[in-house]
Amino acid sequence: MKTGQVSLIGKPNVGKSSLINSIMEQKLVIVSDKPQTTWHRINCIYTDEEYQIIFSDTPGIHKPLSKVNSYMLKAAKGALEGTDLVLWLFDAQRGVTRAEDYVYEVIKDSGNHIFAVINKIDLVEEEIIGNTVDRIKNKYGLEEIFTVSAVKNLGIPDLMRGIKDRLQDGPVFYDAETLVDKSSKFLISEIIREKIFRYTSEEIPYSCAVFVEHFEEKQNGNLYVRAEIYVERMSQKGMIIGKGGELVKKIRLNSKKDIEYMFDGKVELELFVKFKKDWRERDSVLSEDLYFGEDL
Prior knowledge:
With 296 residues, this protein is α/β, with parallel strands linked by helices. It has nine helices and ten strands. The strands form two sheets. Strands 1, 2, 3, 4, 5, 6 and 7 form a seven-stranded mixed sheet that branches. Strands 8-9-10 form a three-stranded mixed sheet. α6 packs across α8.
């Protein structure tokens, strides 16, 4: 069986998570139209009769401004170690920007084989795509360039053929039923965090984190989950709760729906909003409550 690890790298909001969901043909990692939605390295396992491919979704590469950002950058860099292939994603709408130079500085000396992948091609004209292809070739010296739309599922078969052609015979690390390498508590926390990104704006989603305090499977097969939404400032607590508790209720109900879909069963979900001062700068909170230590 041919196996390998493929790491998706790029600046924030280029569609790495959407591409993995498209390849896996189901939603395994959270997505948002806001940048820096992905905070952790998450391995999704694609298995068919001839291939097992471990796709690593990574945080967008950007200059770190806080300890959270530093953890995210370390997670992205860590994905380059021992990987067989790097997919460097570009946004077709934005083309090649100065931010790509920073990404290139991170990956150029990794020794990994690199595919350039231009995503969101459904949103631009063919001429713009061609110009971006030429710029990538001329500026970074890359020849293997794929054009895709993760949302529209365009170009995915060609990309998968290119990936599979690069793989070698190797050991199988996961059984065929395994789709993601994270715990149930982690996946639930990500679902809740996605809803915070969806239903809040400006700095609020970046000031919130989700800690699943309790996860239990009842005798009747139903799940009971108790989770806390951390906020950095007391004023943000009221914003998340909303008038009459409407916003936190909306987050809870929509999270519950997705959790029930993922676990194929009934879920009782309790959500609490908790003031956790400067959580983004506290190593103990980041490592023990919020899974950042698992990425390193």
